[in-house]
Write a structure and sequence with these properties.
Elements: H1 12-24, E1 38-41, H2 55-70, H3 80-85, H4 88-95, H5 99-112, H6 118-131, H7 147-158, E2 162-170, H8 171-181, E3 189-192, E4 194-199, E5 202-209, H9 218-227, E6 233-236, H10 242-247, E7 250-255, H11 270-279, E8 282-285, H12 286-289
Parallel strand pairs: 1-2, 1-6, 2-3, 6-7, 7-8
Antiparallel strand pairs: 4-5
Helix pairs in contact: 6-8
Length: 300
Amino acid sequence: MTAALTSWRDGPAKRAIVDFVTSATRDGPRFIAAADRIATFDNDGTLWVEQPMPPQFDFVFRKWAAEAEADPSLAGQPPYKAIVAKDEAFFEGVATQEPKVVATLLQAFARSWAGTTPDEFDAQVREWVKTVKQPKLGVPYVELVYQPMLELFDYLRAHEFRVFVCSGGGRDFMRAFAEQTWGILKENVIGSAAAYTYADGKIVRSDQLLGALDLGPGKPEHIFAQTGRLPAFAGGNADVDIEMLTCAKFALLVNHDDADREFAYTKAAEKSLATAEQLGWAVVSMKNDWTTVFKNDGAA
């Protein structure tokens, strides 16, 4: 089965993954029953590019900019005001997924799409997927999914792990492309979400968030609420993933250190990198551990 990890160089990260999965699936003290083989992964920065900001906010800000252009009175209201004024502190909070900023945005996000059906919302996301390109790399965001992580999904599934994506971003935004992009069913996507109402034969989004924000401690809370279990395997890349990684039996932290093929940064990941060293998590060097980065690049 190790051949499935073809974009992973033989090194400490790959060996740690294989050792854990092997011991979890063979009789012995580290065996994990198939029912408990839950694997959860953050999305932004763990499964695809998150610079210069998480892709969902590209989708959201385009809509809000269009709304502010159509109705100039909105320009004085948050979050439109910060977008129109190009408030640096605001965008910094977006880029680093600062929980207070994300919470404000997701509340506004819920309001903007209140009353839409799932099909209507999915259609808007799919149009964004087809037409919008990442500003530096010049291709659609869904082409910037990390090939080694897709291989890891396949490797885990081959060993009877159930794979979930658990992100602070919008659950329904990710569900619109999850099956085609990650090969993950919609019901295996966990994230911050709007509440829904059902009336007159149809279900529509409300203007309220469903439960707490899926960041920090919210991640294990949401995972347990959906699966009834905490993860055996967890993957993340940032400080907001620490609680999810800490509660797992095996933790994998993606380190963005490849300025040539992607981006090099540690901002909003300093605590997670320090925790990884302290607790012995497996740390992935994008530069040294991956022979290829993106799913359409082909293995080097």
